[in-house]
Specification:
This protein has 933 residues and is α/β, with parallel strands linked by helices. The protein is built from 38 helices and 14 strands. α1 packs across α12, α16 packs across α18 and α21 runs antiparallel to α22. The relative contact order is 0.07.
Length: 933
Amino acid sequence: MNALRFRLLGAGLLQAVRFVLGMLCSGASTTVGVQQAPTAAARTEPSLTVVICAYTLARWWQLLDAVRSVQLQHYPADEILLVVDHCPELARRAERALPGVRVLPNAEAQGLSGGRNTGVAAAHGDIVAFLDDDAAADPDWTARLLTAYHDPRVLGVGGLVRPLWETGRPAWFPREFDWVVGCSYQGLPERRAPVRNFIGANMSFRRAEVLAAGGFRTDLGRIGTRPLGCEETELCLRVAARNPGGKLLYEPAAAVRHHVPAARTTRAYFRARCYAEGLSKAAVARHAGAGPALASERTYLRHTLPAAVADGLRPGGEAPPRTVPALVSGVTATVLGYAVGRLRRPVERTRGQAALRALAVLALPAALLLWLCTLLRGVDLGAMGDLGLVQVLPVTYWTGLVLLALGFCAALADRHSRTWQYTGYVLALITFLHATPLALYPELRYSWAWKHVAVTDVLLDTGTLPTAAGRLAVYAHWPGFFWLNDLFVTHIGLTSPGSYASWFPLLINAALVVPLLMLYRTFSRSRRLIWGGAFLFFSCSWVGQDYFSPQAFAFLLYVCVIAAVAHRLPRPGRPRPGRPSLGWAVLVLLAIATIVVSHPLTPVMLIGSLLLLSLPRRNRRVVLPVALVALALATAWDATAARPFIEANLHDLIGGLTTPESNAGSGLLGLSGATSGQVMVAWADRILSAVVFLFAGLAVLVRPSLRRTALPWLAVAPLPWAVANSYGGEMIFRVYLFALPATAFGAAALLLPPLLTPSRGRGLRRALRRVRAAAVPLVLVALFGALSLAYFGKENVNYFTASETSAAKWLATHAPEGSLIVGASDNFPYAYHDYEYHDRIWLSEAAPGDQWQVRRDPAAELHVLTGSGPPRPAYLILNRAQEAQVTATGALPPGTLAHLRSALAHRSDYPVIHRTADAVVYRILPERTPGGS
């Protein structure tokens, strides 16, 4: 014993006394009745993967015995994985000598834990069983293990480990300390019974549970010949803590023989192993708490060890007297190791973990505080230019956003992060993105939101929607969204949805969190991966279809339906789902019906996704009935209520099917007339979309477990519609939107593997792992940059000042029924107010020849455009947002609006009847004399 141990012995004496009741080893508490052994019957069991970890050529012949024992099982395993721990020579030799065995290099930290994590990540089976490379399984080992998994509450099964002594058991070696050589010891149950933890040489788990728990800790367990352990105990504690109703079973009938070399039969090894076990147990106590870490050891100390000492001292006892000194020295060494382990903390790692945890906890409130400071200081919205909010938001906002990304990455890296932290970060991101315009803008954002408010107002005023209203006639044929808002406004006592429409982006995105989490739980049981996918979804959702609109509402219902269906799909480790409950069926039916009557595109996307999901035979029992219901409802609605609209636009719909190349490029390539800033914005959203699809595709390639989920089908289901119709130039972006719930999780699975653990490697390996760990926040910050450009880069167009709104409202109030409203575009508030009573002309939608005539001779061309038909009041409205839109998109020839205002400045037939700081309203009078002034 060195000097350090003697110094720590005195300081740890009190600790040793306090924890004298907490002796080390694996134990159990209860015993149940024995069951009959299973027979090798038809393969109705879950699939099984056996993982064997090896790290040295010195055990080559024992390794061959271990592999052969698995290959000769009465109930063969579905696959055998041999994970070689950083020994290339052993890997090459095993690949040549072991056909039918998949040989993998340890892809994680060096040691047994890293090797086991590598095996779990690569396994295809529902159940993963672990066998040491110096152990051999009995012929019925796999069958005995799998029998217990008929009970869905069983999370894992461990078995008996019999010692196979190379030189015979030493007379002084007590059976109660067989755990020293990795074997089952006196005191474990003799029949099948629940236990706290297993012995590593013979254990199995449901693979999904190991993944969800985060795998084995690589800072525990054996590395090379270092005799530390307890990584199995710590994992079992985490698995049990996540599943309060589950249980871990010890099945002594599932037995293996564990080779014990002569080097492990010495007293020096015995004491060293006991001391190391104390250190290991102290580490487990730091992670899981002393209570769970020492629960079984109390029973071991109170009953097993006293009985062993009494038996050794009793004349004629089964245990020889020579075992008593070993019992005492073993207890002493273990307690000493525990005391030293509790006092000797890994300073560097503890400080790093403390800093990580502090960042995870403090970054969230700090980011929100910076966001509030941004709002309180104010933002000069009038300074917005070609890049919108991106160029006027202060450094406090961007600092808070970056801090949010770093804090969330820290929360993902900290195993102790709570669900409320993940929830807080996701909601904070939604707040940063969608509450900022709400707090800064004096008026409702986005002209289309104003349009949908106007449609709802018409329904509130007249009780119906006009079917002869030009492009707005579509809302009369899919009125579900407006019906619901009419019902809500009426029963709440409001006068218009305009009172809450500004809040819609914030509310709709917050509501999306719940179905997204539900969907992602069908892809993985890893909590950090599920929340990482949700965070990445909102980090990549640049399309902007979250304003007050039928699309936003229908998309929310789409995700709800997909999540509800995916939740019932058969998954590895889960029994085949039974018949859906009546409540589930009713809710899904209502959601589909609401989608069908609210939006023309979303039912098409939903049906396509469901039909693709039904291609795997295992999914059809759940998906096909839902798909047929959706198809029947959509067909019935299109054949009745929506039939007039479809017949009127049938030519365009059919024409779209014949020009797939133009459909795919529509909205993607048309940047010729845009300003340089808007070209940058367009490329930001395109690159962001491509990166998300690329990451998702790579994730499916490198993570086989994702291929057995609904993710690949949901990611590719919207793609065919990109060539089916241009949808007004927006189809390519809608395809990205509907694929995003799946592709965002795929990207998260690539960036955030569930078994990411701290590395203890050296040199280049350690550097590469550090680069990989640093890449996640860097990628997230880069995504934030692209998202900010794509989402906020058009705000100079979407933002309306109070004076613009005032002028538009004045026109909407004073224009008599039957008026003609003319504007550079429809990008102004109240553009469609009382749309059933007025006609409208937007210069940005006029023929190119007419646009150039407006540029050349504005007064004359306006009279030409407005002079047809019977005489009626005509008005021209020009405002700041219109000019920003036509300039940014190139919708009108450059300088058209400036020339228009100049040409009309002194004309008596274009009197200004209302003017504000950012808008002007002209009355268009009949032309008195050609070219007169």
